[in-house]
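Q: Given only this backbone (198 positions), what sequence would you predict?
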C-alpha cells in the first residue's frame, strides 16, 4: 500500500464572505470540522491542516482532532504558499509519503466516500494524478503522486495546485463530483446552500 497524506488548505481570509467561512455551519458542525472529519475517515496516513488569516478562530475548532496544524504566515501571498507550507509540514512528519491529496475547506459536499475513492484509484493503478471533474472543469480534491512534489513546491501566487493539475491533465484519472462546483465564497453562496439543504 502506498502512503497517502491529505493537506487541507484553510488559510484564506474569506474576504468575500465577510466572516471566516471555515466556521460556517454545515450539517451541524463547522465547515472546517466537516472537511477534517471526512479526511480522517479515510485510509490516509496523515492529515495536515494549513491555517493562516483567521487562525485564532479556526484553531479551537481543531482541538482534539488527530491532525497536524501548520501556520502559514505568508497566506496573503496566495494559495500557492499554503500548498507549500502544507508540503513542508508533511515533510516534518514523515519522509515516506507517496502522494498528497489536496483539499480546500469551502466545498461543503466533500465526503469521506469521495476522498477514499480518489485514494483507492491511486492505490490500484497509481496514476500521477487523480482529480475531480464538475461543471466542465477539473479541480480539487486532487491527488498528486510523489513525482509531482517538486512542481507543487515551486508554485507561486493565487492559484494553489491548479497549474500543476492543468499541466498534467492528459495523465489525470478524473472522477465525477458534480457538487464540487458548489463552494461557499459569498453570503449568497451560503444562503443558496442552506436553502438547497432545507
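A: Predicted residues:
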Amino acid at each position: 500500500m502506498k502512503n497517502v497524506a491529505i493537506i487541507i488548505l484553510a488559510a484564506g481570509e474569506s474576504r468575500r464572505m465577510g466572516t471566516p467561512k471555515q466556521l460556517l455551519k454545515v450539517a451541524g458542525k463547522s465547515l472546517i470540522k466537516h472537511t477534517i472529519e471526512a479526511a480522517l475517515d479515510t485510509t490516509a496516513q496523515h492529515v495536515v491542516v494549513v491555517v493562516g488569516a483567521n487562525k485564532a478562530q479556526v484553531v479551537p475548532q481543531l482541538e482534539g482532532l488527530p491532525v497536524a496544524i501548520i501556520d502559514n504566515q505568508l497566506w496573503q501571498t496566495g494559495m500557492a504558499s499554503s500548498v507549500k507550507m502544507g508540503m513542508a509540514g508533511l515533510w516534518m512528519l514523515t519522509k515516506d509519503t507517496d502522494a498528497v491529496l489536496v483539499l480546500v475547506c469551502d466545498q461543503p459536499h466533500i465526503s469521506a466516500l469521495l476522498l477514499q475513492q480518489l485514494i483507492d484509484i491511486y492505490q490500484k493503478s497509481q496514476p500521477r494524478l487523480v482529480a475531480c471533474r464538475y461543471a466542465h472543469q477539473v479541480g480539487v480534491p486532487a491527488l498528486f503522486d510523489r513525482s509531482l512534489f517538486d512542481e507543487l513546491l515551486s508554485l507561486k501566487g493565487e492559484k494553489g495546485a491548479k497549474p500543476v493539475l492543468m499541466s498534467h491533465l492528459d495523465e489525470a484519472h478524473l472522477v465525477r463530483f458534480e457538487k464540487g462546483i458548489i463552494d461557499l465564497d459569498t453570503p449568497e453562496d451560503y444562503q443558496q446552500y442552506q436553502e438547497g439543504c432545507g
